[in-house]
Design goal:
The protein is mainly β and 449 residues long. Helices cover 2% and strands 35% of the residues. It is built from 1 helix and 35 strands. The protein is globular and about 75 Å long. The relative contact order is 0.09.
């Protein structure tokens, strides 16, 4: 992967204790009630039946509906179970192959991939790996439903789209997933969602990924379908090409972010945190924090919008914070917001944008918006860290103007019920993904008379 992995790495210690706990005893491979158990961490693909069922063989069994290797016959909709704390390293190199024999794991039927317990397994590329890790292959005739949870996906390196995961024509659910340290030569260092694909990313981390393509690259995520991200962090990803745009995320067609932190992402050109593509029909932000991202990281003047860069008028934001970002251009710089033409954004009120003094964005403020138009507003954020919950967040300092500045009403563009950490928001609520004084939900036993 060479220099592609020079992006700052952030490891989410609080998500899972990968490799720290002894794995549970491995049950025999069987398909009882549509469940296949993976019984070896080796990347096997055995044409002759044997005693062990690998992850690659289990996916082949589901794809084909037949027994394969050491796995019993699978069927569309089956669940494949991994052992928590185990690393499944792919070693069968050979890209540009779509039958799951070599290279990435090719998913061609609906399935669920998770672990046997409430902790994650790891799917990794081995020595000399030259492909992504997961390739979800729906078609216009076959619309797949694929659910992946409790999985760290790291070390993908593809000459194409989606260094970690590539999704085509499928409904892909990613929950409690970490996309980390993957590389794409084109777009979507961690994840690429293509036309007619639908992805939901929840309670997840996208960190340390790189996309080296020209134009809209998406160091962390590249979306040209429908994408919904909730309660997640997109941090320390890079669009590394001199013309690369969207260090954290490229938003095309339809994208929705709720309780999301985009931080420490880098684009050598436009949109350090987020790039709204010309194809971006709609981008909805609610309780989103976009901070500490950088555009034009090489300082050559060919990039703007450290926080967001708009090439579409589809941005609708509420209860969100865009502040404290950077534009490394030596001349005119637009650190928090920039646009590439006559685009406008729509505020649904209760937002904080730190620097519109140095910006060419056009956003009509609502009565409770805090826009730095006369002078720059300091958001007063603590450093990115583990503040509880499954993902990384920026806590609000005591003097933060984001505190209690969210929409307190019961209707309209209201705050999310919980913050990014899954803690209950009181009223009035805070702007951004983090809530000061958020309450942990408690479920009391029901006493029957």
């Amino acid at each position: 992967m060479g220099g592609a992995m020079h992006a700052r790495r952030i490891f989410l210690a609080g998500l899972v204790a990968v490799g720290l706990a002894a794995p549970a005893p491995v049950p025999p491979a069987r398909a009882t009630g549509g469940v296949l158990y993976v019984t070896t961490a080796l990347d096997e693909y055995d044409l002759v039946a044997n005693a062990t069922c690998s992850l690659r063989e289990a996916i082949t069994a589901v794809n084909s509906g037949q027994a394969f290797g050491g796995c019993p016959a699978g069927a569309a909709g089956d669940t494949i179970l991994l052992q928590p704390g185990v690393t499944y390293t792919l070693t069968r190199t050979g890209n540009n192959e779509d039958n799951n024999v070599t290279g990435d794991l090719d998913i061609r039927q609906s399935l669920t991939l998770t672990t046997t317990g409430g902790a994650a397994a790891t799917l990794a590329g081995g020595a000399g790996w030259n492909d992504r890790l997961l390739d979800v292959q729906g078609t216009s005739e076959i619309n797949l439903a694929v659910n992946v949870s409790w999985l760290v996906i790291r070390g993908g390196d593809v000459a194409g789209l989606g260094g970690g995961v590539n999704n085509n024509y499928a409904e892909l659910d990613l929950t409690k997933v970490e996309l980390r340290d993957n590389f794409s030569s084109l777009s979507g260092g961690g994840l690429a969602n293509n036309t007619d694909g639908t992805v939901t990313l929840v309670d997840s981390l996208v960190a340390g990924n790189t996309a080296a393509g020209t134009g809209p690259a998406g160091g962390g995520v590249f979306n040209y379908g429908e994408l919904s991200i909730a309660n997640s962090s997109v941090v320390s990803n890079t669009a590394s090409n001199p013309t690369g745009q969207g260090g954290g995320l490229v938003a095309g067609f339809k994208t929705t972010l709720r309780n999301v932190t985009l931080s420490h992402n880098i684009a050598r050109a436009d949109g350090g945190g987020l790039y709204l593509d010309p194809a971006g029909f709609q981008l909805i932000l609610n309780n989103v924090t976009i901070t500490a991202n950088t555009a034009d990281s090489d300082g050559d003047g060919a990039g703007d919008g450290g926080g967001v860069y708009l090439v579409s008028s589809g941005l609708i934001l509420s209860n969100s914070l865009i502040a404290g970002n950077f534009d490394a251009s030596a001349g005119v710089s637009y650190p928090d917001c920039a646009r590439g033409g006559s685009q406008t954004a729509t505020s649904q009120d209760h937002n904080l944008i730190g620097d519109l003094v140095h910006s060419n964005c056009v956003i009509t403020p609502g009565p409770d918006d805090q826009f730095g138009t006369a002078s720059v507003i300091d958001p007063q954020l603590a450093p990115l860290s583990d503040n509880g919950g499954a993902t990384l967040t920026h806590a609000l300092l005591d003097a933060s103007p984001a505190r209690d500045a969210g929409n307190p009403e019961a209707t309209g563009y209201v705050c999310e019920t919980e913050d990014q950490r899954g803690l209950l928001r009181p009223s009035p609520c805070d702007v951004g993904a983090y809530e000061v004084g958020a309450l942990r939900l408690m479920y009391l036993p029901v006493i029957q008379r």
